[in-house]
């Protein structure tokens, strides 16, 4: 055994203890495995004396033959635990004399990576939902504005109706006066004015009836106007709430964006440099 490999072999256990995660360590010369330290939670079942040719698909063998530091990541499908394997050739006077490799459990990194991926997916869904809610709130705001404009138009129409009713009341009043004057003239005419008296009474009845109907319509219009004003007040309240809701949703969207960036950084940080 080469003296340099012998010195490394004597320190293998100490090397293994320096890893924060569970690790398997292997030391090989050009022909075979000369030291094998399994991990606590997993073992690659590579024993001392295993010929290098029998593990020719491993990163350890490839590093030995290429003279380059190599690293690979594998899932849990092989040994039940995801792991990262790193192989470092050992040189003496410019010549490769062996290789040391460390196989480290990647379980925690895998959990972190999976969590970051799930977080990113959740953020995407929440962002999409938030955008839909913002769009819906914007539509509501537009509808509320249209409703407010229509309410104002209805109030203007009511004012016009009031003006028309004022004219009708004026006509009814004048008709009532004309009917009264006609009754007086009919009374003066005696027997010849009896027919005219009937007409005068009908005119006055029509005027009184018109006046009553006008008063009823005015009451109804006032009730409608009051209802419109209450509706406008409610509409303004909803519009203010919608505006606050949109502002809150925008803040939430900004938060989602920040969380999304954090999940991307977590995914990036969990990548292994090969």
TrEMBL record:
Gene3D superfamilies: Methyl-accepting chemotaxis protein (1.10.287.950). InterPro entries: MCPsignal_dom, Sensor-like_sf. GO terms for biological process: signal transduction. GO terms for cellular component: membrane. It comes from the Bacteria. Residues 207-244 form a coiled coil. PROSITE patterns: CHEMOTAXIS_TRANSDUC_2 (PS50111). Keywords: Coiled coil, Transducer. Residues 116-274 form the Methyl-accepting transducer domain. This is Chemotaxis protein. It comes from Pueribacillus theae. The lineage of its organism: Bacteria, Bacillati, Bacillota, Bacilli, Bacillales.
